[in-house]
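G., the chain you wanted modeled:
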Amino acid sequence: MKVAGEFNSWEPQDLNKQEDGSWVAKLSLVPGKYMYKFVVDGDWLVNQDMPTVSDDTNVKNNLLEVEDGENSGDSDSWEKVSIPETEAGDAGPGGNGSVLQKIAVVERIFSLSGSFEDAVKEVKASNGTLVEEKCFTDVYYDTAEYQMLRKGVWLKKRIGGVDESWQVRAVVNQKLKICDDIDTITKQVETELGEKGSIEEIVTRKLQEMTRVTLKVSKWRIGEMEIEMKKEGEVETAMIRVVGDIVTALKELEESANKLKLVSFHAPSLAAKLTGAA
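Predicted structure as tokens:
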């Protein structure tokens, strides 16, 4: 049993089990409020019988408040964080009557049953609050012979917004790897094409624009739930993110998808789109 929080840079530290069955940590803290979680067998948990609070990303944590009193705020003052003994005398997740609850972030991508604009209307009708809206254009580059694509490598430049950026997506051991680091991207393109120079220089000498895709992202919040709708060319999707205990989160996710008229996600192959653009 461990505890991790703002008071120890979220690095799990051991709790000591007491004779009464509780688990205790002594911490030297200055007055203030500290978020934390318990860590049991690698699972990060909250104690429902102790104060809780949600952070900026709506993740629930326990809350410890150290008051500014006569014995607070110096190096000799200590605060005790403990989990009380349960009916089975075990505060672990398997203990009978345990007050610990596992918190999960559940995400799922859906396709839109109608248009992007219709989906926005559905979210608004559900009292959704707009968090952020962005529009980009992704330009994909390759040789005329699709030298990189044939190796499972996609190079794209994102334009629009504050800054322009490059990205490489590559299939490695049947898994999609994404890289946004410009130095790593340049080295990989140099290796793939046998060229030297900056990414802009190599693109100018060896590559050509194969296709460009307009990307629109609209992020919304409905209560504690986040919805990110994305229109990428002809592909329109919605990702729902719910934070909570796993059973409740999954139930809320399915109910929200049905209410917003979302369907199972199916995406066309980007490789097929690029090949068709030749």
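Confidence is low (pLDDT under 50) at residues 70-77, 86-98, 269-278.

Shout if anything looks off.
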